Amino acid sequence: MNRQNPPGIFIYAALPCEAKPLVEHFNLKKETPVQPFAVYLGRDICLTVTGLGKSAMAAGVAYTHALFAAVKHPVLVNIGIAGHKDHALGSLFLIDKITDIDSLKSYYPPLVFTPPCPTASIQTVSRPQIGYDPHHLCDMEASAFYETAVRFSSGELIHCLKVISDNALSPAENIQPKQVSQLIAAHVATIEALLAELRRLAELITAPEPAQFERLIQRYHFTASEQGQLKNRLSRWELLTGAQIPELDETPLHKGKDVLCWLDRQINKLEFSL
To answer: Is pTM, for the whole model, over 0.85?
Structure first.
């Protein structure tokens, strides 16, 4: 999809009722030629309605970024509903840990800014659950969203916002689409604040090619996909260290994948404050 000014912010919602208040608030227009997914565009925002579940979410993220492959350092946000045993209906949470119940993999979206709302962990399941975990939110898309999204941007720019739609006193079978839209509409100001902060972060790293990128791709073999991952990791390093240059211990490094693993380990050791 060719646009002179492609969007920098990408929102993903599983359900039309989750997307509706965002489409209205940001004055987004549906792209009618797009067939596999409902895609809505505004001045700087693209919203995709993916459908329910992990496979649909992963496909929706991948499809949208195939349409806008030229966008560098996009902001990606999954906005939707989740359940919890005790949290009040309508409570809003920014997710700081995502666990996929099927694979038991966990992801930790880096929070390098002050969250605009409380944070919480979430567990992603493949089918609706009868019981409620008292320690975690529960949804059906977050892990697939994050795992796919990190292929296209830096982790600092990828986040999940979840609104509580059901709990032990009001279980999932009571959820109505109109209610979901109302719950999300109540938080559009917070959503807008988060997007503004993420846009600011994106501008910090949408800069010249990261230091050492050219030298590393000349020295080691990186596939096209791995070159993109290298840019993301070097940009993340610069963001978290104030543009310091990583001092690579190149003795054990033989190929591009070794460099990526080394950078991952070093980034995970970095300390930052909120």
So the answer is: no
